[in-house]
Amino acid sequence: MPKPGELILESPRRPKPPLHWSDLSVAQRKEKIVELGLPGFRADQISRHWYSRLSDQPETWTDMPESLRTEVKEKFFPELMTSIKSLSCDNGTTVKQVWKLFDGVLVESVLMRYPDRVTMCISSQAGCGMNCPFCATGQGGLTRNLTTAEIVEQVLAGARALARGEIAGGVGRVNNLVFMGMGEPMANYSSVIEAIRRLTDEPPAGLGMSARGITVSTVGLVPRIKQLADEGLPVTLAISLHAPDDELRDTLVPINTRFKVSEVLDAAWYYAAKTGRRISIEYALIKDINDQAWRADLLGELLSGHLVHVNLIPLNPTPGSKWTASRPEDEREFVRRLKNHGVAVTVRDTRGREIDGACGQLAASAK
Ligand code: SAH
To answer: Could you identify the atom of ligand 1 that is nearest to the CA of residue 135?
Structure first.
């Protein structure tokens, strides 16, 4: 267990999961196929089965010879993760999956169906090294980075379940994606970017999701935010701010000891200017900690006039924490003051709380 405030910025070295088709770019897939002495068109054929038809059983891909199906399955479709637990609430429209990875490591993803859309919340790391004291994931430290395919396959598992009508509400598809599960996506930068490319690549190369429907949430790793801005991927950037002043933010989001509030916001404005995308500011309201009226005013002053939207999250209590969500009247006052500064604000719902599937509750226990 990390000590309070201790940061883990590098993933511990661990055995790598076996290579998966979703780890490979379109060009790399073709190379691999040609290396096997096969015609290049087989690569597209395989991708079409996996991403367009959402078929995860190569043995049924009858437009390929049987021996090839077997070879392809062995080489490119190892079982990366097995579902060891599935919990649902809201009449089956919120579903949390606990996945066991090839090395026994556990991660979680959550699917949330709304009347007009499906959002998936996925993990980018097993554990997290950012050590925010109010977040369950941070308490166990960082086990390892997930690979590109381990990230992509969380989404495909949801997409398949929806396509097969296995989720309450009937056949559907994944519309939105938030990197708000376990882990700090900007600390696993290259795998996350590659995963976003796979997810947004047009079929048959990838899943064909809209980048605008994807939100990358970060504690504020400034150099990475700038790098993401220059990537040419119009994803939504969410900043987990949680405090407008360095003194409090140093304790709530320990990376603030490296990158100050002003630096994080400057990087966010750079992102907005480069991409034209509105920044989302995440702020978990914690009773008597960060919910004072003066902090609402200070936050309003910092954000006023920028392309930004504030998402207030009533704190989801985590086991053993001394903190709870703000009083309703304090929450209302916080909202009112932000609005007075002309800042757009919404209060996030707490879907999945009772299955420990809400923001900050993902701890991936097998229990
Ligand atoms: N590491 C990334 C993404 C994962 S957390 C990040 O920090 O942004 C997703 C969001 O949930 C973050 O805004 C995080 O601060 C917030 N969160 C964490 N624990 C929470 C809790 N107990 N209650 C409410 N929100 C929480």
So the answer is: 19
The CB of 72 under 6 Å from ligand 1? The reply is no
Given the structure tokens 């379940």, which residue do they identify? 161
Residue 262's Cβ-count burial label (10 Å; 0-12, 13-18, 19+) is exposed
Measured distance CA(354)–CA(148) in Å, rounded: 30
pLDDT digits 0-9 by tens, 208-259: 999 999 999 999 999 999 999 999 999 999 999 999 999 999 999 999 999 9
pLDDT in the model for residue 366: 52
Cα–Cα distances in angstroms (integers) from residue 176 to residues 41, 54, 118, 267, 361, in the given order: 31, 17, 6, 24, 20
Stretch 62-90: mean pLDDT, rounded?
Answer: 95
Q: What is the pTM of this model?
A: 0.96
Residue range 121-155, pLDDT digits in tens: 999 999 999 999 999 998 889 999 999 999 999 99
Please provide the average confidence, as pLDDT, over all residues in the chain.
95
Measured in Å, residue 135 CA sits from the centre of ligand 1 at 6
Asked if residue 7 lies in contact with residue 254, where contact means CB atoms within 8 angstroms, the answer is yes
Provide the pLDDT for residue 367. Answer: 52
Nearest atom, ligand 1, residue 359 CA: 11
